[in-house]
Amino acid sequence: MKNVMGLVFANIYDSSLGQLTNKRTQASLPYGGRYRQIDFTLSNMSNAGIRHIDIVTQYNFQSLMNHIGSGEDWDLQLDDGGLEFITPYSVGQSNTFRGKLEAIAAISDAYLSRGKEEYIILADAAVICAINLDEVMDAHIASGKDVTVVVKAGIANGKKQLDLAVRMDDGGEIADMAVDYAAPDNYLASMGMFIMRKDLLMRSAAECVSRNRYRFEREFILREWDEGQLSVNAYEFHNVALFNESTEEYFRNNLAIIDRNVRHSLYRDGLTIYTKVRDQVPCYYGENSEIDDCIVADGCVLLGSAFNSVFFRSVKLSTGASVRNCVVMSKCEIGIGAQLEYCILDKDVKINAGVKLIGTMEHPVILNRGDVV
Amino acid sequence: MNFQKKRCVAMLLAGGQGSRLLVLTENTAKPAVPFGGKYRIIDFPLSNCVNSGIDTVGILTQYQPLELNEYIGNGQPWGLNRSHGGVQVLPPYARSKKSEWYKGTANAIYQNMAFIERYDPDNVLVLSGDHIYRMDYAKMIRYHEEHDSDVTIAVRQVPIEEASRFGIMNTNPDGSIYEFEEKPKQPKSNNASMGIYVFKWSILKKFLMDDEDDPNSDNDFGKNVIPAILHSGHKLFAYDFEGYWKDVGTISSLWEANMDLLGTDPEFNLYGDGTAPIFARNYALPASYIDAGSKNVNCLISEGCEIYGLVRHSVVSTGCRMGKDAVVEDSVIMPNTVIEEGVIIRNAIIGEGCTIRRGAVIGGAFHEGEKRQIAVIGKDHVIEVNQVVKPGEVI
Questions:
Q1: Chain A residue with Cα closest to B318
Q2: Which in A172, B15, B249, B301 has the greatest CB count within 10 A?
Q3: pTM, rounded to two decimals
Q4: Which ipTM score applies to this complex?
Q5: Is B324 on the interface with A (CB under 8 A)?
């Protein structure tokens, strides 16, 4: 899809992810043992042949830039204009943005209008999925509508606040649309992915911002659809989509990948998820290790026992240590006889021998990067 | 084009047929044979070069080079995608006057003298592509320069009863070599050549040309070039290497070298002290899944696997699947192999991309005092439901 460019917002839900995003963007949150969340967004775009992606980031972007590097691991390269980072102060008006519309308006001239692509796909890194964007694009063209929003059933539950929710009629048309809404379960949740013509987006963003409207979903999509100025098509995605918009969801969705169906939906033939490759040795399982129902990355040395947990790279699990229902990020060390249940260990956490930490599914114990317990 | 001078250029001999690895090298050059769960044999000398600060490496290929060429690519995984130097695959090629296959190890370098000449190096490091070890070549080159040596040969001490299997360097107390014996019946010392040579380029060039003019020569380093340099009165030194080194040229040594990676304090530690990593071409694979019904002890399992069975004292490579109630013991499973439910594999090497169907039994138990029989399945083979592959059988 040479005719489409990607625009990724890296910081959308930072504030609802608490200490996990203290020093990183939501996009660079580790996921699934060896990925960062943005890997899914970038891989989906790269797999659809998109070769021009701009990443808008506002703060804490050092780890993200370090992860993505030149983009070559996703077949996107900085030097041929394939991948561009848009950081605050990249262009005149672009300090920090109040909303996506402001960001788009600020970068239209310097970035968006430069490429020859006619269409643009907007996405963030909050929803983990493997999606065929070629099919979404085809559906968008076939619909004849101005905008296509990708939606997912089964997320709305009357409690979860959705950025954008739609209810469909029997003919597949959007019957109702609402923003920041704890929608009932007959609504579908927006996955934060939108396809439209690039010129329409740039023109609309400029119009909105000049009237102090900066919230993309509320003050552009919903409002103009309501007023009959914008036609919107909803594309329903049927495979697994995991919404990581809060710490609790992040924890649950990290463990979800242990489930075979979830795993096989995220890792599908033809939709490879790319990430920064590192040279780590294969995982070593010790003589008395007991590892059950776990995801394990390279570089780990597992001598203790573990159940229903995710181990990122180069974790050391000592003899007699027990880890149950935990997410253990890279380079953590868990001492002899330590017991952990329902914990998120950020990178480089060291748990000394004999330490016992027990959280719950709803309220996992979260340890910050580099903590020593 | 004006090339900046390099202190040392490495030439990696990767052209051997590796026929003693049987089916594993049927369509694969020996250096491209998978090793240690996610590596290929060539990763070890290549990574040693990079970790020793050598950024110009010629890889001499001849036999089944396709896979190896693809694996090396532009050298990016090893940091060898340089605009000046970097890694270059050097197959035999047609010249205006004549074209010929590499006749021997020395001839392979001879045919690529122009490649070396471009960098005008002081020294040329000649390496084999079929050894597993971690070595700082920079130390050896420093030793070579300090002794103003013409040729320096890395040696390691082997048990004297095994010395007759190796090329033995007999040395004076100062480390200089006075005699070289290829596989001596009555070895005088136990300094075995590791097939790692540092030459002064000026000396090597002269002797390669002389060797080429000698119609009776086999154009081999060990057999012809080294003895010729020695007999003409040049300075040859032996460089002692201590540490793990293994020639993985046979099925049993390849199996042993894989097993040497296991344990909390393994014979050969892939990670080492962390300062000299072994680089490999990495693929985008998810972290592995280990099922509750599985049991994995004293083993290496690489990324991209789904393991439902039991793995004991084995190496399982990237992208393998293993079904419920399957057992893998004392074995090496190469990348992307599928082992279905109830399969039993013992004392075996299973090649890349194989499918072992339900209930098949490959190899067998090893009894103390007997010679270990390693069953071998070649690349991309399918073993049918309930098929039995006997211990030591090769398919």
A1: A282
A2: B301
A3: 0.92
A4: 0.90
A5: no
